[in-house]
Amino acid sequence: MLTIPSRPGTTNPISSLPGAAGLAGILPTADECYAAARALAQRLDAKLIECPPPRGLYLACSPEALWLRLRTPRRELAVRAQLSAGRQAYRADRASPRGEAIARACGLPRHGSRQVVDATAGLGRDAHILARLGARVTLIERSPVIFALLEDACERASHQASTLSWLARMRLIAGDAGAWLRACAAKERPQVVYLDPMYPRQTTRAAPGKEMQVLQALLGVVDTADTLLQVAQQTASERVVVKRPRHAEPLAGEPPDYQIVGRSTRFDVYRSTPQ
Length: 275
Ligand SMILES: C[S@@+](CC[C@H](N)C(=O)[O-])C[C@H]1O[C@@H](n2cnc3c(N)ncnc32)[C@H](O)[C@@H]1O
Known about the structure:
Elements: E1 2-5, E2 23-28, H1 34-44, E3 56-61, E4 66-71, E5 76-79, H2 86-93, H3 101-105, E6 115-118, H4 125-132, E7 136-141, H5 144-157, H6 164-167, E8 170-174, H7 177-182, E9 192-195, H8 210-219, H9 225-235, E10 239-245, E11 258-261, E12 265-271
Parallel strand pairs: 2-3, 6-7, 6-9, 7-8, 9-10
Antiparallel strand pairs: 1-8, 3-4, 4-5, 10-12, 11-12
The protein binds S-adenosylmethionine.
């Protein structure tokens, strides 16, 4: 398990991650990206490649971002993590504890801090909103590839002075959240554990969005988040919040204590059951 304090100057943070299964390799897209691509290839135990593979997943190190790309015979899809620019930054700049359903579900006060563990960190967007609204968030991600994207977003954000306050409230951990939560000492217990598992079933006939197609190609559609609910309830000192598609079954078939329902998603809130 590896802990990364999110501040500028973090060095070699993903060196001890396991290899990135399913990845064709890492492609530097410009001369200036060679060193970073080589270092990442070494850390992820992946190949450095000179051109995109004919099909499959690869990471592209470009000057503006680290991209996860999926190439098919007909097209190429790309995903990056981005916190300090684009749509995510626009949303975060306007976020308020009352306006954001996730903040209400996590019980974020208008003032003061709250400890949240985001046990399924993914590309970090939900954790970012919580950190922007004052929460201290521990982000745990078990996929080394997704973790590399997340770390890239935090590293790029750290170049802007305006991000340093919320970035300092985010701590990245690479590894399995179940193991981390089980090892959580009583005094380290967060008030809130937040879960946003991959949702395997399509609720409509439409194909999944581009981002979901890339993530499913990397991670598969089956998630072990069901098993996280119980350990999360035992670890959180106050509540567990689970993000679900609005009409989905509750996680692990467990009815929540209450729900905050939005247009397309809802947040199921479970009172904790500390052991
Ligand atoms: C739907 S994504 C989360 C998206 C995230 N909420 C966001 O705002 O970008 C789910 C993520 O949880 C991760 N995950 C699933 N089970 C995990 C576990 N036991 N420990 C750590 N990460 C896990 C997956 O690798 C995936 O990246």
